[in-house]
Design brief:
By secondary structure, this protein is mainly alpha-helical. It has helices at residues 7-12, 32-46, and strands at residues 69-71, 101-103. The chain is built from 2 helices and 2 strands.
Length: 108
Amino acid sequence: TGIAEDTVYQTKYNLTEAESTLTFESKYIIDSTTATSLRTYLLAQWKQPHNQLEFGVGVEHLELDIGDILEFSNMPFKIFGEDITDNTTTRPLGEQVINKYWWIYKFK
């Protein structure tokens, strides 16, 4: 069963098969071994969701800046059913670590 045929993540993230499949064309790959290596690399690079949070802070946190790393505690909700306050390895495929750290990449 290929990743595109696995409906576990499609159901969890409410995606269609087309939305969960990356078609990648390369004119320089001419054999299946190289194609498989590229597929494995791309899957490892993008299989973990890149979640983003938007939130407000009080004046006591005005020292925060772009590039700072945050760690949340006592979060009242989960993202896609996963706790973001603790490092976990709950993904069914690949046993990825879900990190509890968040990076500030922009301000509004």
